[in-house]
Amino acid sequence: MNEDLDVLFTRFRWPVAITRWWAMQELSVLLLSAELHEAVSQRLLTELGRCCLEAEVVEIVTIFWMAAKLGCAPPPNLTSTLGHPSLATALLLHDMKLDQSVEPNPPLEMVSRNFTPPTTFRHVQGVEVPRYFLSRLTKLQHESGLPFISQCAFEWAKSERTFPTAPLQGDIAHFVRSFGEGFTGGFASRAMLRMVTAYQRTLDVARTLWGLPDELAWRFAEDALPLDPTLAFLRPQRPSWLPAQGGMATADELSLAEEIRRVLDSLSATQPKSILLALESPVHVDSQTITVLSLVRWRRWNANPVDAKGLASRFYARQERGEYGALEDSEWGLATTVSPTTLDTALDPEADAAPMAVAYAPNRIGYLQRDLFPERLYFPMVTGGDHPLRIVPSGGELAISSESDVIATACYWNAGWGAVRPYGMSGLHGTTLIAEAFQHAQTEAPPTGYFYLWKVTRWRRSSDHGPFSQDEPVYGATSA
To answer: How far apart are CA 388 and CA 229, in angstroms?
Structure first.
């Protein structure tokens, strides 16, 4: 088992995000084992003492936090072992009923006026590091007039001394170069860890030295979490009822409609009381072709033919603009909520129809889970109610409830394995949203029917090396 544990810890430090997430889940579960708890706990504490960056510390504390949520008490010397505490570790420790009494290391220091940012700070943005962190700090800088960007660049420069021989070890180019141009991926390289560390320390400087309100600093510090608390316990599990759909890679429009009907019939045969609200997944992945299926259930108030392409264009545009609403997490914890909305907000007037599921704009994203966004996770679109939807982890899936009743469950799986993907698509993950008890508001006119709006998108290339090009998507509507 020691060799297995060594392999697991090695994978925990891989710069591939999905692998890190999986390793963190496995280690948190091993902490629950009476036989292995002591060995795993001591190994994690040893690794904690070796951490050079605040972001590395946060990832290990997250493992203890996940285990605590599963019923395992954290080690009594956890807080005293923190070599590089931060706002994010304080959030996690507080949720475990622990206090962070250790001072920042190295001590906080304000950037000087004559500081010149290193060129690497700008070069990694949008390549090794999402622009999200810089955008968030830019917003604070515009609102306050304080030098948030310079402070972050200063913290970035300080961390370069931590790894003098290889400050960008594990960089994205190592994984992407062999595939050719036009690829990205879900990575968490050393550059990413340095940026997340610089971001946290900048917030701490603003809170401690510039008077940034604590509540705002804690809120922004959630960006530095590797895993969104609601999504942390998601386990990859492909639904047993879902048939293989490899034929969609070359199918024409008529054959695609037949394949989609086969998917719907398979669910009806195996789970007759369940309703598929959304399915989003790559259905075929090889070195030269990637085919992605998007499927969303709609309700309608007429019997007119559906202009699938026009409706899809409006739907995805509104979704991208966040017009259907956003996920919310007003209080720290495992739950995420969706505020109630009206039928007028959801309705597409031209089709006189409304979607029953939406990929809502996220309020927080764990940096190891970015492959799930912006278009993989769908949640129910419920109108006419007074109570928000509540999303919580449950048995490796997500349970969505209205008041006290669970109305739907969401799951995800790895639809294709690889560290990279073409630009312009989310990660190689599949997701489904299944309703078990879906009732419409009594104040609304009952729909006259239901249908599924679907889109199939293909990326192709002529060889095993070089960029993919995206075909024009194929749209359709299939009766429910």
So the answer is: 19
